[in-house]
Design a protein that fits this description.
214 residues; alpha+beta; Ubiquitin-like (UB roll); DNA polymerase, domain 1; 5 strands; 11% strand; binds FE2/S2 (inorganic) cluster
């Protein structure tokens, strides 16, 4: 199964691979790290952190949201429960289904495995921000409609966000490539053939000038 791309740079806790750490192990590791920091003397020259870690600003779909959150809050919960953007879905909440896929700095991540605090300073995009300002659907959104790329629709926001990234990554050159690089997004309605057809249509419509430019 293909991995989705983790948050770049300093945000490697967002790694979205199914083979990656579970939420339990992730939070366990964080807890261990926190204890370690509490009992160990700061190394010489280290700067002490004086800010309030629960206050954060997230840039979502081009807009800043100032939030006051428990630092253990996932990006998915921040989006859905605190910002009110419920397009990103909670399927498994443990990195297995892809329903929560969003973009961070143009790369797809699983928001249920990403701590909201690690998304500070990054550009978060969700399904709500995909259409143009005048409401024109993104080519991938339109292609999903054209090809009936869904039935119940629960997985669809994650499928579409992942498909946009898949095309930009240039991992949509063949049916096999699409299936491989979309394999982190499950669909219990099994709309897979239609999803592949939709991605091919969008890939061809987007053209090489737009591919690679998230
Ligand atoms: S809800 Fe995030 S992968 Fe399933
Ligand atoms: S359309 Fe129902 S889960 Fe994918």
């Amino acid at each position: 199964m293909a991995d989705q791309t983790p948050l770049p740079a300093n945000a490697d806790l967002s790694k979205s691979s199914n083979a990656g750490p579970s939420r339990r192990s992730l939070f366990g590791a964080i807890g261990i790290a926190a204890v370690g920091q509490a009992v160990q003397a700061a190394p010489a020259g280290a700067q002490s952190f004086t800010g309030d870690p629960s206050k954060m600003t997230l840039n979502v779909n081009g807009r800043d949201y100032r939030l006051n959150l428990d630092t253990r809050t996932t990006l998915l919960d921040a989006l859905r429960d605190h910002i009110g953007l419920t397009g990103s879905k909670k399927g498994c909440d443990q990195g297995q289904c892809g329903a929560c896929t969003v973009h961070v700095d143009g790369q797809r991540v699983l928001s249920c495995l990403t701590l909201a605090v690690t998304a500070q300073g990054h550009k978060v995009d969700t399904i709500e921000g995909l259409a143009g300002p005048d409401g024109t659907l993104h080519p991938v959104q339109q292609a999903f409609i054209d090809h009936d790329g869904f039935q119940c629709g629960y997985c669809t926001p994650g499928q579409i966000m992942s498909a946009v990234a898949c095309i930009h990554e240039e991992h949509a050159s063949s049916d096999d490539d699409i299936r491989e690089y979309m394999s982190g997004n499950l669909c219990r309605c099994a709309a897979y053939p239609n999803i592949v057809a939709a991605i091919k249509q969008a890939r061809d419509q987007m053209g090489p000038d737009k591919i690679g430019k998230a």
